[in-house]
């Protein structure tokens, strides 16, 4: 496979999906369903965008494995060969309630290593992407490697469950930082770290499709991504993550170590 050619092809799909999502916002009859609880929603657009990507992948690369949040495209239990990871709308609750602050993500891994990855900030029409060894970009502008600085010099992002389930730990992290910002879309929170608008994103366990696209881009920029106990991210599993510049990452891991028995 020619990676540059395939990435260009996929960028076209990502642009088309973004356009479809923007157009869908004026459709007042989008079907919304509850999944596990009232804040866990799926819309017909989540399913439609995932099916849109799957159809393109199946046509071009029929032997590749596909993991999609909304689909059951066969059980994927390994990262052997080429594996596509799709989160068609990340921040579905925001898509429904705010009509903003959501993104669409697609990444390609080969034997467990990120090859390329796209996070489409649909409303701002900004496509963040990285190609392994070729850097990370926002649209056509190359992103700079993030510098390293301590937790006390930046803002942090947390997910809602982190604040709710680990309040003492969350407070300790926020107190040492300059402040906290919550968006409600793992992809967009990771974009905040990638673009150095916040210094870290710290979470309770997130699904692999929530984090795999962002991790690929972050790694390309020299950011540190690990589980909250500082062990490597586990492929295909749920991971509580810390993604940050190196100093901030270390500061957060130190807090985690000191307070590991709090909030349990
Ligand atoms: C959710 C968002 C949210 C995170 C949740 C995810 P979804 O993804 O990324 O920020 O806190 O854990 O499930 O379901 O909207 O794709
Ligand atoms: Ca979901
Ligand atoms: Ca998601
Ligand atoms: Ca989703």
UniProtKB/TrEMBL annotation:
Enzyme class: hydrolase
Superkingdom per UniProt: Bacteria
Residues involved in Mg(2+) 2 binding: 90
Sites where the protein binds Mg(2+) 1: 69, 87, 89, 210
Keyword Metal-binding assigned: yes
SUPFAM superfamilies found in the cross-reference section: Carbohydrate phosphatase
Alphabetical UniProt keywords: Hydrolase, Magnesium, Metal-binding
GO biological process, one term: signal transduction
GO molecular function: inositol monophosphate 1-phosphatase activity; metal ion binding
Transmembrane segments: none
Record-listed E.C. numbers: 3.1.3.25
Cofactor: Mg(2+)
Pfam family, one: Inositol_P
Protein name: Inositol-1-monophosphatase
UniProt source species: Jeotgalibaca dankookensis
Source organism phylogeny: Bacteria, Bacillati, Bacillota, Bacilli, Lactobacillales
Gene name, Swiss-Prot/TrEMBL: suhB
